[in-house]
TrEMBL record:
<keyword id="KW-0472">Membrane</keyword>
<feature type="transmembrane region" description="Helical">
    <location>
        <begin position="101"/>
        <end position="127"/>
    </location>
</feature>
<feature type="transmembrane region" description="Helical">
    <location>
        <begin position="58"/>
        <end position="80"/>
    </location>
</feature>
<feature type="transmembrane region" description="Helical">
    <location>
        <begin position="147"/>
        <end position="165"/>
    </location>
</feature>
<keyword id="KW-1133">Transmembrane helix</keyword>
<feature type="transmembrane region" description="Helical">
    <location>
        <begin position="356"/>
        <end position="375"/>
    </location>
</feature>
<protein>
    <recommendedName>
        <fullName>Oligosaccharide repeat unit polymerase</fullName>
    </recommendedName>
</protein>
<feature type="transmembrane region" description="Helical">
    <location>
        <begin position="30"/>
        <end position="52"/>
    </location>
</feature>
<keyword id="KW-0812">Transmembrane</keyword>
<feature type="transmembrane region" description="Helical">
    <location>
        <begin position="387"/>
        <end position="416"/>
    </location>
</feature>
<feature type="transmembrane region" description="Helical">
    <location>
        <begin position="177"/>
        <end position="193"/>
    </location>
</feature>
<feature type="transmembrane region" description="Helical">
    <location>
        <begin position="222"/>
        <end position="242"/>
    </location>
</feature>
């Protein structure tokens, strides 16, 4: 019989797969992060200042981000932590099955307690035709505003969603575990319960990195990435529609001029898109820049430019004997007139600047570069894939919260000291990259 082969994939698809593989490679994380920072926080604010609105805080944001960008690149390329990674005597070996069982058992207990003690579940309220304001309050009540012993639940949630579940889920796929798809479904389902932003990305992002780096067959990689993209797009659209309530896209009059909220300038926090797709784009492009610039303005106007010296972190404030300053709540109150439940999170440069000035921006950014280097040099492919989750958190919040509340300090220490064994089968089969010189 004649030999048959699978039809070759088209050149554009092959090129796209190659680009994705290069961009998402852990060793190139600094490059992708640098490109994102330059486009969103250097070039875009500068463009807004020059051609749209001469807001001096936009120009300051561009300058701060430029300094931070240079420090990230320097931090990534200096081999400060390599000596620890290269000394095998530091490794503590732990069986992978023990890790998975411990993580998922603890999570299921946590999720059960959270649901049983919740007054209501936001996603169910959304299905019951709640308004946008009602859903905002529901999301806050679900975890953020818990009191007494339940006040610990939000912290457990951030560690599970931020580090433990993404790591375990990705490694289950690397191990080709029979439970990998069940784990992914449970993870995504939990992130949808609170309708909190797009937390499902914490499940999909490391899987995207894993697929792009460790699937050798281009066709298989393309099909897997396409499936992830379709699932992510669908979940994102559904979450956006549900979280917007029944009234968000109804245009309201602002005053005698009959201007609607949607008529506010695009780079204005009062702007209101008139569809879910436009809302997703606006929140992805405009809101991060608006919030970062507003953070600098609030720091200059309300706090008179006095550095907060770590007081924005509850842990640092407690250790240093300072009164906690909820800076994100202050920015939200300035934007919307109330800070009862809302928080205006911005890129980590702002936290660094309001606490320690330009020195803080450089120091925090250098630490970020070192963290990216640690992810790249890990010999655990699931740990390598977590670099994109780390970047998600520092782009949407401060470094203090990412390291302490979300648990990335523990994860980076684990990369330095712990080896999870045995290696995933797919890692050995596909000759995944061991620690390499960068």
């Amino acid at each position: 019989m004649p030999h048959t082969t699978q039809p070759a994939i088209s050149a554009p698809i092959k090129f796209g797969v190659s680009v994705m593989k290069t961009l998402l490679a852990p060793r190139n994380s600094w490059l992708l992060v640098s490109l994102a920072i330059f486009c969103l926080y250097v070039a875009l604010p500068a463009f807004i200042y020059l051609f749209i609105d001469q807001n001096q805080y936009m120009l300051t944001l561009a300058a701060i981000s430029g300094a931070g960008l240079a420090a990230i690149i320097a931090g990534y390329h200096l081999s400060i932590t390599d000596r620890v990674l290269d000394r095998p005597g530091y490794w503590l070996c732990i069986n992978a099955r023990v890790v998975h069982v411990a993580i998922w058992t603890a999570f299921l207990i946590f999720a059960t307690v959270t649901l049983l003690t919740a007054d209501s579940v936001p996603v169910l309220a959304a299905l019951g035709h709640a308004t946008a304001d009602q859903l905002s309050q529901e999301r806050a009540n679900f975890l953020k505003l818990r009191t007494g012993w339940q006040a610990a639940l939000p912290y457990f949630s951030t560690i599970f969603v931020g580090v433990l579940l993404p790591y375990s889920t990705t490694r289950l796929f690397a191990e080709r575990s029979a439970f990998r798809f069940l784990a992914l479904v449970v993870f995504i389902a939990y992130t949808l319960l609170s309708l909190e932003k797009i937390l499902f990305i914490l499940a999909m992002a490391p899987l995207t990195v894993f697929v792009s780096q460790y699937y050798k067959d281009a066709r298989r990689m393309f099909m897997a990435l396409a499936a992830i993209a379709v699932l992510s797009g669908g979940v994102l659209y559904l979450n956006t529609v549900l979280a917007s309530g029944t009234d968000y896209f109804v245009q309201e009059k602002l005053g005698p001029g009959h201007e609607t909220l949607g008529d506010a300038p695009y780079f204005d926090i009062r702007h209101r898109p008139d569809s879910a797709v436009k809302l997703i784009l606006w929140r992805s492009i405009a809101v991060p820049v608006i919030t970062a610039a507003d953070g600098i303005r609030v720091f200059e106007e309300r706090f008179e430019g006095h550095y907060l010296l770590g007081a924005t972190s509850s842990l640092v404030a407690r250790v240093t004997g300072q009164q906690r300053v909820n800076f994100d709540a202050a920015v939200f109150a300035d934007q919307f007139g109330s800070a009862d439940v809302g928080r205006a999170n911005s890129v980590f440069f702002i936290e660094a600047f309001v606490n320690f000035g330009w020195i803080g921006v450089v120091a925090f950014s250098f630490a970020v570069g070192q963290a990216l280097r640690l992810f790249a040099r890990s010999d655990d492919l699931a740990s390598q894939s977590m670099w994109v989750v780390f970047c998600w958190f520092i782009f949407t919040g401060g470094l203090f919260g990412t390291m302490f509340s979300n648990g990335f300090l523990l994860m980076l220490l684990a990369i330095l000291t712990i080896k999870v064994l045995p290696k995933a089968q797919s890692e050995a089969a596909m000759a995944s990259a061991p620690p390499f010189a960068v």
